[in-house]
From TrEMBL:
UniProt xrefs under PANTHER family: BCDNA.GH03377, OXIDOREDUCTASE FAMILY PROTEIN
Domain Gfo/Idh/MocA-like oxidoreductase N-terminal: 81-166
Keyword Chaperone: no
Protein name: Inositol 2-dehydrogenase
Enzyme category, top tier: oxidoreductase
InterPro entries, alphabetized: Gfo/Idh/MocA-like_OxRdtase_N (IPR000683), Gfo/Idh/MocA_oxidrdct_glycsds (IPR050463), Gfo/Idh/MocA_OxRdtase_bact_C (IPR043906), NAD(P)-bd_dom_sf (IPR036291), TAT_signal (IPR006311)
Key words of the record: Oxidoreductase
């Protein structure tokens, strides 16, 4: 980070590599006006485990002008994938690559950025992208803390940018989750009494020794806003446990989810999908939800937490491996967030909605139960999904909805405000798991009630040089 911003951008503009070739700088000239029918040009920031899906879905609608990643090897693979997508669609545009996301944001020819970095980078990059006039598709979860969610939602309102969060269950999978939410809102099971979200557990931790940082990885920039720590890697141990051998750094790449410093374990991984859909079905804004309690009925942290909810060991994964948090709203509705409901309800991934007049189940493979069967003879109103989405003709894919909103400037299906409201339940549940005690959260103030210790988890202080 000794190179200043101007020097870095001059260096980035002077050269870049695709495969083993070094070629000249891109031209940044582009007409300011854009036709609503013109294909958007994307920049992809982060080329890891979600990149393959995102680049393919994005290139359906427009070309990729840049791929950014702090891992040069991973970045090179990302460029090659993008080139294949371009070749298949005959896009006449060169794909550039960068290590620093600011170089992508400074390009005038990029309309929208797709952020697929680890979670701890999302808020900073998204904020800077909005300030640079870019629209954003950001992988879920959008934030690492509750404070970040509020700041981002407010910044979307301030800048007028389009921000679509990657909670694709709202649109895809045959509209099964949208149908489930519409059924709840339509009273198909009467007053909702209980929702169970089974989201899976996290892997068991094991000691991981320090190792030399790979030459192709900028470890300082990978950490970014997170606290500085040494690089840890155990390639053979990871291989023995069946993990992908191409990702030896167990604090990085596919493994970042199991560290509270960078993510929230399964609570913000699958919770950002299933809890999001459960809250979506309730159709309640922050002001309507009222205070709710979060009770950690069961939690296993094999890397134990100290009295302040901080992991004791720094050389191993630290998110909860097994858990059951009961969220109870003021009106008595219970939302159980569990790793698995096989023993109690017979399923290990999905959402069970239970009301006074019946129950039904939904996951990415099925939508079942008598209320679902009853739709054959008593279907939902023709405009039920339109009312759920708040507009008509929503695209059948999440990226498609994002691109439509780039043109119309409408609010996307998974917007920053509603995602923040729903993800807050997951963030708050994680705090209860880490402290190991019952908490009360007030959505109106976005703070835990009368609990200074819990409120210390609402925000984080970015590492110097990575403030936003």
């Amino acid at each position: 980070m000794s190179t200043n911003r101007r020097e870095f951008l001059q260096f980035s503009a002077a050269s870049f590599w695709v495969g083993s070739s070094v070629v000249g700088a891109p031209s940044l000239a582009r007409a300011a006006a854009r036709s609503a029918n013109e294909r958007p040009v994307f920049g992809f920031i982060g080329s890891g485990i979600q990149f393959q899906t995102l680049i393919r879905s994005g290139c359906v609608f427009g070309p990729c002008a840049a791929v950014c990643d702090v891992d040069a090897v991973q970045r090179g693979r990302g460029v090659e994938t993008a080139r294949i997508e371009h070749y298949a669609r005959d896009y006449p545009i060169t794909i550039y690559n960068y290590e620093d996301h600011r170089a992508v944001l400074d390009r005038d020819d990029i309309d929208a950025v797709v952020i697929a970095t680890p979670d701890h980078w999302h808020a900073k990059i998204a904020t800077e992208a909005m300030d640079a006039g870019k629209d954003i598709y950001c992988e879920k979860p959008l934030t690492l803390t509750i404070d970040e969610g509020r700041r981002l939602a407010d910044h979307v309102a301030k800048t007028g940018r389009v921000l679509q969060v990657g909670t694709m269950q709202r649109t895809e999978f045959g509209r099964s989750f949208a149908t489930a939410a519409a059924m709840v809102r339509d009273g198909r099971i009467g007053t909702l009494k209980r929702v169970t979200c089974a989201i899976g557990g996290s892997p068991q931790p094991f000691p991981i020794p320090p190792a030399p940082t790979p030459k192709h990885l900028n470890w300082d920039r990978w950490l970014g806003p997170a606290p500085w720590t040494e690089y840890l890697a155990t390639p053979q141990i990871l291989k023995d446990r069946g993990y992908e051998s191409g990702h030896p750094g167990s604090r990085t790449h596919a493994f970042f989810r199991w560290w509270y410093e960078y993510s929230g374990g399964k609570l913000t991984d699958w919770g950002a999908h299933h809890v999001d859909c459960a809250m979506w079905a309730l159709d309640r804004g922050h002001a309507d939800i009222g205070q709710y309690t979060l009770d950690p009925l069961r939690v296993e942290h094999p890397n134990p937490m100290d009295k302040d909810g901080m992991p004791v060991h720094t050389d191993r994964y630290n998110t909860a491996t097994q858990f059951h948090t009961r969220v109870e709203l003021e009106d008595g509705l219970v939302i159980d967030i569990v790793d698995s409901a096989v023993e109690t309800l017979g399923f290990d991934n999905g959402i069970m909605f239970e009301g006074e007049n019946g129950k039904f189940f939904v996951n990415r493979g099925k939508l079942t139960g008598k209320p679902v069967e009853d739709l054959q003879t008593n279907p939902l109103a023709a405009d039920a999904l339109d009312r759920l989405y708040g507009r008509t003709n929503v695209a059948p894919t999440h990226m498609g909805d994002f691109v439509d909103c780039l043109k119309t400037r409408q609010t996307p299906v998974s917007d920053a405000e509603s995602h923040h409201r729903n993800l807050t339940v997951c963030h708050a549940a994680n705090v209860a798991l880490r402290l190991g005690r019952k908490l009360t959260f007030d959505p109106a103030t976005e703070r835990f009630v009368g609990d200074d210790q819990a409120n210390r988890f609402l925000a984080r202080t970015p590492r110097k040089g990575y403030e936003w």
